[in-house]
Amino acid sequence: MPQFPLPLDTPVPSSSFLDLLEAVGAAPRWEIPADAAHNLSVPEGTTVLALRYQGGVIIAGDRQATEGHMVAHRFIQKVFPSDRYSAVAVAGTAGLATEMVRLFQVELEHYEKLENRRLSLEGKATFLARLVRGQLPMAIQGLVVVPLFAGYDELDKVGRLYTYDVVGGRYEEQEFGSTGSGARLAKSYLRTAYQPDIDASGGVDLAVRALVSAAQEDTATGGPDLRRGILPTVFRIDSEGIAELTDEEIRPYAESALEDVR
Fold first, then answer.
1. Range 10-48 burial, b when 16+ CB lie within 10 A, else e
2. What kind of architecture, by CATH, is found in domain 41-261?
3. CA distance 143 to 30
4. What residues does each domain of the chain span?
C-alpha cells in the first residue's frame, strides 16, 4: 500500500480526509483545458428533490440522464446515502457528480472513524458546499454539478434539507427544495400541494407526483415507466436512519400519479 509521508513543513491535517489529500498533494483537481470543454458531450442528470415531513425528510430523483437532446441513460442513480442519517442527490454532469459523492461519503466515514462520532448535519452540509466550490473551474467551463442534501438532525430531532448554487452557496430550505432541469416545475407542483403536517407516506406520494409533474413538461426529466420497470429513486430519513424504498413500495405511488395525469 503506498505511503504518503508529510513534508516536515506541512501542518498536520485535521479530521478532514480532503485536508489529508491536499497535505500529501493527492487532492482531486477539477480542471480541463478551457478549449476542450466546449467539445465535450457528457451525460447529465436532471431532476432531484427533497421535502420535509413530520419526523424526517424524503429525498428523491428521476432515473434519466441526457446527452444533448438524446437520452443517455434510463436507469441512472442520482440519490445516494452519504451516511446513516443523510443522503445527497445530484444534478448536472454525471461523471463529476458521482466522484463528488464518493469523496463526500469517504469524508464523512473518515471523520467518524477519527473522532468516534458523526459530523453534525450542519457540518456535513457545510463540507458539501466546500466540494461544490472546489469544482468551480469546471462549472465555469460548463460542466456543472449542483447537489441537494438532506438528513435527520440527531440534535434537534428534525429532518433538514439544503440546496446549493454553482459557486458553493448553501441554503437551508424550510419545506422543500429541488435542483436540475425540471426543478422549477417540481417546485411549482410542491408549492401548491405541500402541507407542513404531512406524514412519511404522504411525503413519498408528493415526491413522486412532483417528479411526474416535472416530466410532463421537461423532456430531460424521466417519469416513471411501468412497462420497463423504471421508477424514481426514493429515500426516507428519520430517527431510525436512512431507508431506500423498493420498487414494489414505489410502484403504487407511481401508478396513482400517472393515472391522475391521464
1. eeeeeebbbebbebeeeeeebeeeeeeeeeeebbbbbbb
2. 4-Layer Sandwich (3.60)
3. 10
4. 41-261
pLDDT of residue 21: 59
Asked whether 230 and 89 are in contact (CB, 8 A), the reply is no
Grid coordinates representing 107?
469524508
Total count of residues recorded for the chain: 262
Crossing angle of helices 121-134/94-115, nearest 10°? 140
pLDDT at 50: 98
Q: Give the predicted TM-score (pTM) of the model.
A: 0.85
Catalytic residues, which ones? 46
* 97-155 residue pLDDT tens: 888 999 999 999 988 888 898 999 999 999 999 999 888 877 777 788 899 999 999 99
Residue 11: pLDDT band by 50, 70, 90 thresholds? very low
Phi, psi dihedrals of residue 37, rounded to the nearest 5°? -60, -35
